[in-house]
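User: Could you check the structure of this?
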Amino acid sequence: MAERYFEKFPIIKYNGAPVRNITERVVTLNSVYNNPIFYYPYDIQQSEQPDDIANRYYQDEYMGWILHVTNKVIDPYYDWYIDQASFNDFIIKKYGSISNATSKIKYYRNNWYANEGMISNVIFDNLYSTVKRFYEPVYGDILYSTTPLGYKRKQIDWKITTNAVIQYALDPSDPSDPPMNGSKFITDEIVDVYNNTAIIGSGQVCGKSKTLLLIQHTSGNVTETGSLHYVMGRESKKKILYTGATLITSNIPVFESTYWSPVYYYDYESEINEKNKSIQVLKKQYSSQIAGELKALLK
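Assistant: Sure, the predicted structure tokens are below.
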């Protein structure tokens, strides 16, 4: 018999009409959920849905809910692995365009994966003391050797929310849009910093008012000032002169910059989607037990 998930939920009155109480929550068979021997690993294929897997494995398409429950899927659309075309549609809907998602930074991460080679003891000894934390010793025989063969990058995914935050004092005499109106910039849009017609830096808007503009995820010479210096938003097209540029926060010193890489929104979302690809499938012999337990608890 088909095991429809929501048919197990009790009927309640809502606005005078009988409806399923989908807010009901139960904890079923924790001993099964937390024991890896009851599952086998599976990588979802392109466009494959829970009912496809359930129909093939449990011979019941309506038992796809077991995959949701056992893999803690809350949102059936975006907590489940989606194919590339659907993923790109999701990106465009959320960020406006693929270009936005691939150019805007989410955070910075220790980029050990970009350099997995080993450096000599001499090179390590000559490093700045603060960057030595990015390395760990490599020993030939850990039982008998006390001197490392060299050092390699620590494989730790350290994260930093941003590299720096700059505050701009907007020019009250700017004739392009008096009075100065930094509030017309769009939050998180990329702005370019100009000296006359030359771009000297860029960043993303993280704070704004009529008189001030804050940007983060900066690159280039974003603190340079002068009579012809201005910022311009790539989306808002807002352009305004500034009279001062102040470094508010500096999380990544110049000599550490090579140890960090930006993670763009597209990469961030792609990593989540790839993680959703690998699921655990409850072995068939326990599926009826889970369904029966849920039905009993929801009575």
